[in-house]
Amino acid sequence: MEVGKPIGNKINATRPHLLRMIRPVLLAVPATLLFVIARTYAGEIEPRAYTNTPVGVNFFLSGYTYTDGGLATAASSPIKDAELKMHTGILAYAQTVDVCGKSGKFDVILPYSELSGSALVAGQARERHVSGLNDPRFRFTVNFYGAPALPVADFSAYQQDVLIGASIQVSAPIGQYDQDKLVNLGNNRWWAKPDIGISKAWGSFTLELSTGVTLFTDNDEYLGGRTLEQAPLLTSQVHAMYNLGHGIWIALSGTYDYGGRTTIDGIRSNDHADNSRVGATLALPVNRNNSMKLYASSGVSTRTGSDFDLLGILWQYRWGQGL
Q1: Which residues does 203 contact at the CB level (< 8 Å), separation at least 6?
Q2: For the chain, which residues make up each domain, given as ranges?
Q3: What angle do CA 277, 254, 94 make, to 5 degrees?
Q4: Would you give the distance in Å from CA 285 to the centre of its chain?
C-alpha cells in the first residue's frame, strides 16, 4: 500500500475514530528520540522507549534543548570548577516497521550544538567556545513480546498488557572534535548500546523498566595523540507514566549509570560513574498530524562526569499508511 493512498471506504469512514484511539501511542514514539544530551552519552532519560505503534508510520522531529551545569571530577583531575552551557538543535526521523510479525522501529538523530564554558585547568582559568555537529545516532528496536505488528486500521483493538523489547543504538564519530581540547561536541570513537526493556500497563498507568550497557571503541587522538580507553557503562531506567486522554500523557523518570572507568595510555583513572538523574515529560497534541513535548531533567547524585540541568521542547510531524 502506498503512503497517502485511500485504503477503502470502510476504513476511511472509521478513520476519525481510529485516530482518536491510536493518537496516544503515536504521540509516544518520539520519546525515544527527544533526550539527546550532546554533552554525554550517560544520563539520558527516555520514557516509552518500548511501546507498540502501528506499522507504516513515519515521524519527522525537530527540537531544542538547553543544558546548564558543570563537571564532577575526581580529586586527581586537573579540571576544577567547570561551568558549561549548551544549546542544541535536533533533527530526527523514525519509521515503524513489521519485523517478522512484531512491531519495530528505526530512528536516526542528528544534533547540532553551541557550547560555551569556563574552568580551572591546573589552577589556570580557561574558556571554551565551540559549535558544530554532534555524533549522530542510529537505533533499531523490536518489541518481541506483547506487541504484534498492526496496521493503523487494526490498531484500535490493541490493549497493552506486558510488553518486552530490545534495541541496539550506535553512534558514529563524525561530530566536531579537536584532539588538542578537553571539551568537544564529538567523541572521536564509535559506541554501541544494546538495551532490553519491559513495560506493564494497568489501565491508564504504565510502568517501564530498562537496562543496557554502552560499549566503546578507543580514541587514539585524545589530547595530542594519547589513547583513551573506556570500560562498559551500565545504565538502568524506570518510568512511571499516566495517560490523561486525548493524546496527553505525563511521565516521571529516573536513571542510574555505573561504570565507564577510563584508561589513558595504560594508566587507569579513578573516574567510574555512579550517577543518578530524575526527569519529567509532558506530551501535548496539536492536531491530527502534529504534537509537541516538554521535558526536563536534573542530576540527583554525580560522582564523575556531567552534572547539569536540562530543559527541552520537541515538535513532531507524523504521516503514513492509514493516517
Answers
A1: none
A2: 9-320
A3: 100
A4: 20
* Segment holding 10, helix H or strand E: helix 9-28
Sign of the torsion formed by the C-alpha atoms of 156, 252, 162 and 145: positive
The DSSP element (H or E) to which 26 belongs, if any, is helix 9-28
pLDDT tens, 98-137? Answer: 999 999 999 999 999 999 988 777 778 888 899 999 999 9
The closest of 241, 222, 210 to 25, measured between CA atoms, is: 241
- Strands, E, within the chain: which ranges? 57-72, 79-99, 102-121, 124-133, 137-148, 162-171, 191-202, 205-216, 219-222, 226-230, 233-245, 248-259, 262-264, 267-268, 273-285, 290-301, 305-320
Closest to 178 (Cα-Cα) out of 130, 116, 137: 130
Three cell numbers written together for 141: 528496536
pLDDT at residue 166, rounded to an integer: 98
CATH of domain 9-320: 2.40.128.130
For residue 30, the 8-state DSSP code is G
Three cell numbers, residue 251:
511521565
